[in-house]
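Is this the right way to post structure tokens for a design question? Let me know if I should format differently. Anyway, here goes:
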């Protein structure tokens, strides 16, 4: 599998689309299916965006991070780190939406007619195919 370069977006909050866990590939063709306006700072002519959200959680101990992106032929695999609260810590009880967003230059992906995107967790378990 070939590593694919990606850049993590610092401000991921505008990309939250649902109170449920969500794993999306956002492109120039489909962004309007999820957002009423173009997310701030996005450039759909140059990039695609990977959005991974844990949904609504009760405290900031829940986190998500995109660890790596790799491509093998027509399959792009996105490896996520899903963090649970540390049971030895006390967290404020506030509603959070853990979300991670990365942008990938279209030119950094090997050309294929149709790409399949597979989101997996840090243990290699498949979460969703988008």
């Amino acid at each position: 599998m070939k590593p694919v370069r990606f850049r993590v977006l610092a401000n991921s909050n505008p990309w939250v689309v649902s109170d449920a866990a969500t794993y999306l590939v956002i492109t120039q063709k489909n962004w309007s299916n999820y957002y009423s306006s173009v997310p701030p700072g996005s450039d759909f002519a140059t990039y695609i965006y990977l959005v991974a959200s844990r949904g609504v959680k009760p405290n900031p101990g829940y986190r998500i991070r995109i660890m790596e992106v790799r491509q093998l032929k027509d399959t792009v695999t996105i490896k996520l780190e899903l963090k649970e609260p540390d049971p030895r810590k006390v967290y404020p009880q506030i509603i959070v939406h853990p979300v991670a967003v990365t942008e990938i230059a279209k030119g950094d992906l090997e050309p294929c007619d149709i790409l399949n995107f597979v989101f997996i967790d840090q243990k290699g378990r498949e979460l969703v195919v988008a």
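Format looks fine. Someone answered above. Worth noting: The mean pLDDT is 97. The radius of gyration is 15 Å.
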